[in-house]
Amino acid sequence: MAMTTDLENYFRGLVPPRSEFLRSLEEEARQEHIPIVGPVVGQLLFILARVVGARQILELGTATGYSAIHLAQAVEKEIGRVVTLEAEAAMAERARHNIARAGLAERVELQVGPAQSLMAAMSGPFDLIFLDIDKEGYLPALTECHRLLRPGGLLVVDNTGFQGAADFNQALLADRRWRSVNLLCWLPEHSPEKDGLALAVKVSP
Description:
This protein has 205 residues and is of the alpha/beta class. It has helices spanning 7-12, 20-32, 38-51, 66-74, 89-101, 115-120, 138-148, 166-174, and strands spanning 56-60, 81-86, 108-112, 126-131, 149-157, 178-186, 194-202. A seven-stranded mixed sheet has the order 3-2-1-4-5-7-6, with helices on both faces. Helix 7 (138-148) runs parallel beside helix 8. The longest helix is centred in the N-terminal third of the chain and has 14 residues, at 38-51. The termini are far apart. The model has no long low-confidence stretch (mean pLDDT 96).
């Protein structure tokens, strides 16, 4: 059977629908060159959180709150929580405002500061961790991600196609405490649209 021609444009036509508010955040990100996950990865995060039955989620790298909104939509009201970490105070304040506008402030705890220091003070466990900070910080964060994630929990890592993530990719692949896969992806309206995503399940302490 023949493949669909021009796959990239074909899949661009399958981008998930989203609210006008999320579209406005996407437009702001385009105009200000703020990297966000975009609607495809946003929807994927929602689906993955639902699949693992996540009640406690940790996000590393909030930016304008776009991905935190998708994650918060996936957890159950009153019993679910997203803890999201942002290094820049001004960006954190902007994210806090956007999360409130989305009606999700009660489900999201936003902490400001370097991810490594903030994670060191946490006890967990989390059901899902989404890693999306500066790529050079990925490898140092991996140990804390393993400590904070529950057995069988899911680690989702964005931007693994960046050169700065190369050491992290190799470490994750070699670490037998994880079952992982790193995928080369075409992600319409992601930043950038051709990138890598890693998924890893914690299989041993």
